[in-house]
Amino acid sequence: MYKVELYKISHSPNLLYLMLVVIPVSLFLGVSISVQMNISEPDNLLNIAFLSSSAVLMLYITIFASLYVNRDYSSNNYRVLIGCGLSRFKIITTKYVIFWLVSSVIISIHAAITMAIPIFLNKVSIHMENIQTITLYYLIYTSIISVVFFLSIIGKTLIKSIMINLAFIILSSIAVSALSSTNFTPVIPLQSLQVISSIQGDKHIAIISSLLYILSTYIASCLVFFKQEL
């Protein structure tokens, strides 16, 4: 089933259209960073690529969720798969893994293009400690991807899913703005991004929080999908 899902995505024009938005936006951001900000520190570059771009990246993930997860609801593909003898557990797990994989690729393309231009033009060097920070950023984004997947499963229909996920993005951004000046324990993924970017942040709390998000949202997605009428 994994090969079939990857084949469907690789031949989907919708993903191509999304990438036609991701790449120009990343190029524009990378050029803007090099010309206007003249960044020389790798930490600042990582903050812009992963933290400052969080709302845009979440929007990309939400759009992809609508094109991949919710499109199968509207096309009755889940009912067809169950009719072919596949278990709901296998279907939802495959969808989750593929959704996480492609979403991570989208994030990687955005980050790579955004950072490549300043690295080349401003001679910014990435060190080993920066690799660890990047890994932690990906862990946090995995928790965000898991939440978006769960909300898409709840929404079922395309419009409802988009509305729920946009509400999540807006409320998360508001919460981060309210908590950014406090020592509040990171209870939302975007707050964890700020903890990772901070030198004095409690990174272990952000890691534990993210792992709990990943586990709980995956289990919740399975439970909701098991009880849904398709």
Could you provide a short overview of the structure?
This protein is mainly α.
Write up what this structure looks like.
With 230 residues, this protein is mainly α. It has one domain (2-227). 83% of the residues lie in helices and 0% in strands. It has ten helices and no strands. It has helices at residues 2-10, 13-37, 42-52, 54-74, 77-83, 88-121, 128-155, 158-179, 189-197, 203-227. Helix 2 runs antiparallel to helix 4, helix 2 runs parallel beside helix 6 and helix 7 (128-155) crosses helix 8 (158-179). The longest helix has 34 residues, at 88-121. 33% of the residues are buried. Residues 181-187 have low confidence and may be disordered. It comes from Fontibacillus panacisegetis. Keywords: Membrane, Transmembrane, Transmembrane helix. This is ABC-2 family transporter protein. The chain crosses the membrane at residues 15-39, 45-69, 97-121, 136-155, 162-184, 204-226.
Order of helices and strands: HHHHHHHHHH
Mean pLDDT across residues: 81
Total of DSSP H or I helical runs spanning 4+ residues? 10
Low-confidence runs of at least 5 consecutive residues: 181-187
Total strand segments: 0
The global form is globular
Q: Structurally, how many domains make up the residues? A: 1
**Helix percentage range:** over 70%
Described by strand count, sense and barrel closure, the largest sheet is: none
Q: In percent, how much strand structure appears in the residues?
A: under 5%
Instruction: Provide the gyration radius in Å.
Output: 18 Å
Q: Which class best fits the helix and strand makeup? A: mainly alpha
In whole angstroms, the N-to-C terminal distance is: 19 Å
**Oligomeric form:** single chain
Transmembrane segments: 15-39, 45-69, 97-121, 136-155, 162-184, 204-226
Keywords: Membrane, Transmembrane, Transmembrane helix
Organism: Fontibacillus panacisegetis
Protein name: ABC-2 family transporter protein
